[in-house]
Amino acid sequence: MLDLAFHHGAGPITLADIAERQDISLSYLEQLFSRLRKRQLVSSVRGPGGGYVLGKGSEDIFIAEVIAAVDEKVDTTRCGGDHNCQKNERCLTHDLWHDLSDQIYDYLSHISLNDLMKRRGVQQVAKRQDGQQSTLRAAINSVNVGSL
Questions:
Q1: Using one digit for the tens of pLDDT, what is the confidence trace for 3-58?
Q2: Dihedral of CA 68/115/121/27: which sign?
Q3: Measured between alpha carbons, how far is 107 from 5 in angstroms, rounded to an integer?
Q4: Neighbours of 142 (CB within 10 A)
């Protein structure tokens, strides 16, 4: 989602491009984006030049919302919140870890994609990834032109 946000305005972005830049399996991304589309966090554009765009502004998409959309949990308990951490019963520190999970979720509920995009370290990584992709494409193009 952050990759898509950085490339917002450049037209639809293909999952293949995101997979390449982020070194993520294309089939895994297809599964994730299907879920994101159902929650209207992304929209798909079909046809030549198609791909995905953000479903709303990056300032209106919060990290906790993205995590929930792809059916992930923010859970630090050993039992996954089932209260069966110790011999099928609640352990001594269950409430501590449950409260931490709530704090993390609350924190992520207040951070938007736009907030992350403003972070200098994130911007540097995005530039590096775009540069690597451009270098790779140039190398591929020179090989293709040379074989003509």
A1: 999 999 889 999 999 999 999 999 999 999 999 999 999 999 998 889 999 999 99
A2: positive
A3: 20
A4: 10
- ∠ at Cα 82 (76, 85), nearest 5°? 70
Question: What is the rounded CA–CA span in Å between residue 142 and residue 148?
Answer: 10
Task: Report, in this order, helix, strand and coil percent for the chain, each rounded to 5.
Answer: 55, 10, 35
Q: What is the mean pLDDT of residues 107-123?
A: 94
- Residue 26 carries which DSSP code? H
Report the predicted TM-score, pTM, of the whole model to 2 decimal places.
Answer: 0.79
Question: How many degrees, rounded to 5, is the angle at CA 136 between CA 132 and CA 140?
Answer: 170
Q: Return the CATH number of 1-62+114-126, one of 3.40.50.620, 3.50.50.60, 1.10.10.10, 1.10.3520.10.
A: 1.10.10.10
